UniProtKB/TrEMBL annotation:
Belongs to the UPF0065 (bug) family. Keywords: Receptor, Signal. Residues 1-35 form the signal peptide. Gene3D superfamilies: Bordetella uptake gene, domain 1, Periplasmic binding protein-like II. It comes from Pigmentiphaga kullae. It comes from the Bacteria. InterPro entries: BUG, Bug_dom1. This is Tripartite-type tricarboxylate transporter receptor subunit TctC.
Length: 331
């Protein structure tokens, strides 16, 4: 068999070189694509109205993230309605490319899929980190004979169903906190739904209702200059924004409820993008501007990294599914 010619060697060498060049170009292209993120504006969905606490948190963090992610421009878009369901649906069904994010609140992201058919569950999102956790409270008018958590329980046991409690609507954080209190204390209360904490505040101060649920940031701000008494907070430990308030656990009722605020994107975002976004959120949770605004609005800051955040939501999901079996909140 004759030896291969010079031209054969040259052709093989050229093919090998071209193959290496193709691989090099592909790798360079991949690196360039990664380095280019973000190359267009990022949308941040807020499932509630502009001007509310969740909206202000989202806008403060979005502004900080623009400074943390090179080339980022974040457009905050409000998609209110159906207790957050409209905005959460839009977030869950968006393209998982890192260009649609959203702020999500508990219990809605967990409770809504339990009570009705939705386009999402907790498993539909890539969670990027939580930044705040406002425990629930229950408050009375300062003139009320109910001065402690124990007073409330005794009064409710004496007259089942007689005590009215303002909530922010069926399935809201306040409504679910009420159900947990009923379950833990063995009492019966009468929920009165309002379109938010502010209308419930007006009703309480006007003595139209006996008590009202509110997250701690709302309750503490409401009592300033008003005849308003907060009975306690529904958290594992006393709140950093109102350390003088007892917990329900101290009164003998193991209740943890309220509203956690965090950020997520649709499930399936590229790993590098998730890291970029979650790193920025971690930094922004400690940003002086965010901390100052949180302090002024009595919002308890609590950063949770992505995996801890997801684990917390899974525990809440299991807890609420158990609650649903005995106290479905849509009835």
């Amino acid at each position: 068999m004759p030896p291969p010619s010079f031209s054969t060697h040259r052709t093989a060498s050229m093919k090998t070189a071209l193959r290496f060049l193709a691989i090099a170009f592909a790798l360079a292209g991949a690196r360039a694509a990664h380095a280019a993120y973000p190359d267009r504006p990022i949308t941040m969905i807020v499932p509630f109205s502009a001007g509310a606490g969740t909206d202000l948190t989202a806008r403060t963090v979005a502004q900080c993230m623009e400074g943390q992610i090179k080339g980022a421009s974040i457009v905050v878009t409000n998609r209110p309605g159906a207790s957050g369901d409209i905005g959460l649906s839009a977030l869950a069904t968006a393209a998982p490319d890192g260009y649609t994010l959203g702020i999500v609140n508990t219990p809605g992201v967990v409770s809504i899929p339990i009570e009705r058919q939705t386009r999402y569950t907790v498993a539909s999102f890539d969670f990027l980190g939580a930044v705040a956790d406002a425990p629930g409270t229950i408050s009375v008018h300062a003139d009320s004979g109910i001065q402690t958590i124990q007073d409330l329980v005794r009064a409710a046991k004496a007259k089942p169903g007689a005590i009215t409690v303002g909530t922010q609507g069926v399935g809201s954080a306040g409504h679910i906190a009420l159900l947990l209190l009923e379950q833990s204390a063995g009492i019966e209360l009468t929920p009165v739904p309002f379109q938010g904490a502010a209308p419930a505040r007006t009703a309480l101060l006007g003595k139209v209702i006996d008590t009202t649920m509110a997250n701690v940031d709302e309750a503490v701000s409401f009592r300033n200059g008003s005849p308003w008494r907060v009975l306690g907070v529904m958290s594992d430990a006393r709140s950093s924004v109102a350390a003088e308030l007892p917990t329900f656990k101290e009164a003998g009722y193991d209740i943890v409820a309220g509203s956690m605020r965090g950020f997520a994107g649709p499930k399936g975002m590229p790993r590098e993008v998730v890291k970029t976004l979650s790193d920025a959120i971690r930094t922004c949770a400690a940003d002086p501007v965010f901390l100052d605004r949180a302090q002024k609005s009595f919002l308890p800051v609590r950063y949770l990294p992505p995996q801890e955040y997801l684990s917390s939501l899974r525990r809440l999901d299991a807890s609420l599914r158990e609650l649903w079996k005995t106290k479905p909140w849509n009835q």
